[in-house]
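Fold this sequence, please.
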Amino acid sequence: MEPFRTLTGVAAALPMANLDTDQIMPKQFLRGVDRHTGLAEGFLHDLRFSAPGVPRPDFVLNRPPWTQAKILVTGPNYGCGSSREHAVWGMRQLGIACVIGSSFGGIFADNCTRNGVPAIALPLQEVERLLALAADAGRCTMTVDLEAQLIATPGDGRTVAFTFDPLKKDMLLKGLDAVGLTLESAAEIRRFEQAHLAAQPWLA
């Protein structure tokens, strides 16, 4: 997994509330388990397409400059619903590398972290400001600095700080998933195993 430190790119506004993972990644796209290919089409499929392969011209991600969006500014409770990790895989495959909103489904936010995507929660007033900027083609570029925990918006010359869980931040900065995080303690785990078996050899 690639480390996430800073990201500058086009932000797209998706203000719908309670957009659940069934809508983010419809069930017909759950047959594969490849997190790297094959799921970009499924991301928000029924919102993006009127029929398979027929884009809805009025949907934000089908219109320039948002066809190149790297950041998604969302409505409240984005990613609620079932725990399908495919929702994050498809979002990432389409090129969305960061989501910003006032709240997220808990499992979805965890899945984001495990796939290198920061899910950044801000107060609703700040999200509304970012949604307005993201909806303006001339002001939709933003920079997310995870290390400094800042979002810069050149469109209005402002910067906003955000809070972020220290463990999730460390995972993202280092490009670690849950297994990689565990393996950082491999030497300690091995020492524990050896001591445990030495004290209780019948378990060996």
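The helical segments are 21-24, 45-48, 86-94, 106-114, 124-134, 166-174, 178-183, 186-199. The longest strand covers residues 6-14.
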